[in-house]
Design a protein that fits this description.
By secondary structure, this protein is mostly helical. It has two domains: 31 residues; 37 residues, no CATH class. The longest helix is centred in the N-terminal third of the chain and has 24 residues. The chain starts with 11 loop residues before the first helix and ends in a 20-residue tail after the last strand.
């Protein structure tokens, strides 16, 4: 399903959803600015994205490298669901 009409305008249901989401984001930003100024100053994305101890974690068994995390892996079985960096 395409989200735009042939003339490039969004379909009415898509435009309505975009408007609703924009309003919700505006409310969230206003609340953060008023109630959590330190979080707001750090940046909204920094507040929403979890912070990890290590930028890259590894597996002791295979030596594979994975994305950020708080701990590595002892066995390959523990990371089989994650994409491997190297």
């Amino acid at each position: 399903m395409f989200d735009k009409q042939p003339d490039g305008d969004p379909h009415s249901e898509c435009a309505e959803e975009i408007s609703n989401l924009t309003k919700k984001i505006s409310v969230m930003v206003a609340w953060l600015e008023a109630n959590q100024p330190d979080v707001f100053r750090r940046g909204i994305w920094d507040a929403l994205i979890p912070q990890y101890k290590f930028p890259v974690v590894t597996c002791s068994q295979c030596g594979g490298e994975f994305g950020p995390g708080d701990h590595g892996f002892s066995h390959c079985e523990n990371h089989k669901h994650l994409p491997r960096l190297g």
